[in-house]
Amino acid sequence: MPMHTTARKFTGPDAFQQMKDEEHLYWASVSAPESFAAGHQMSVEGYRAYGYTADGRELKTVALRVERP
After folding, report:
1. Distance from C-alpha of 16 to C-alpha of 10, rounded to nearest angstrom
2. What are 39-63's pLDDT values in tens digits?
3. This prediction's pTM
4. Per DSSP, which regions of 1-69 are E strands?
5. Which of 12-21, 30-39, 43-52 has the lowest mean pLDDT?
6. How far is CA 66 from the centre of its chain?
7. Residue 1 — very low, low, confident or very high, per pLDDT cuts 50/70/90?
8. Residue 64: what pLDDT?
9. Cα angle for residues 18, 16, 36 (degrees, 5° grid)
10. Coil/strand/helix, residue 5
11. Three-class SS of residue 47?
12. Count of alpha carbons within 13 Å of 43, Cβ hemisphere only?
């Protein structure tokens, strides 16, 4: 489900905080599957912006070793 956008202008010294509060309220009202799907879609769009395909075949794998005590 795409996020519905409405142009809003926040003013005053706490404009950024007002914007973040509204954003938080929106994501709190969205179900977990919808927010997961939206996050996935943003990730896919981000990769496409750099020329990668959605399946990620061009991405390189990185091996990482983590030592634990």
Report:
1. 7
2. 888 888 888 888 777 666 666 666 7
3. 0.56
4. none
5. 43-52
6. 27
7. very low
8. 76
9. 75
10. coil
11. helix
12. 9
Residue 44's Cβ-side half-sphere holds a number of Cα atoms within 13 Å equal to 9
Cα–Cα distances (Å) from 58 to 10, 27, 51, 54, in that order, read 40, 31, 9, 10
Hey, what amino acid is at 60?
K
Q: Up-side HSE of residue 19: CA atoms within 13 Å toward CB?
A: 12
DSSP secondary structure, 32-47, as one string: HHHHHHHHHHHHHHHH
| Tokens coding 57 | 């075949």
Residues 6 or more apart whose Cβ sits within 8 Å of residue 2: 38
Residue type at 24 in one-letter notation:
H
Q: Does residue 24 carry a pLDDT above 90?
A: yes
Structure token digits, residue 18: 């007002």
Q: How far apart are CA 37 and CA 24, in angstroms?
A: 17
